[in-house]
Amino acid sequence: MRLRHFFTVAALLSAPTALGAAPPAKSNALLKAAEAARPAQLALLEALVNIDSGTGDAQGGQRASLLVAERLRAIGMSVELISAEAQGLPDNVVATLKGTGKGRILMIAHTDTVFGPGTVAKRPFRMDQTRAYGPGVADEKGGVVEGIFAIKLLRDRGFRDFAQITFLVETSEERGSPGTRKLIDRLVHEADVELNLEPGDAPDVMTVWRKGSTAFKIDVKGRPAHAGVAPQQGRNAATELIHQLQLADGLPKTGDGLTANLTLLSGGARYNIIPEDASATINVRIRDKAQGDMVDALLQKNAQTTLIPDTRVTVSHEPSFPPLPNNAGTDGLAAMAERIYAGIGKTIARGGNGGASESALAFEAGIPALDGLGPVGGGFHSEEEFLVLETVTPRLYLLASLLMALGKTPPARLK
Question: Which has the closest alpha carbon to 199: 384, 338, 41, 379?
Answer without folding.
Answer: 379
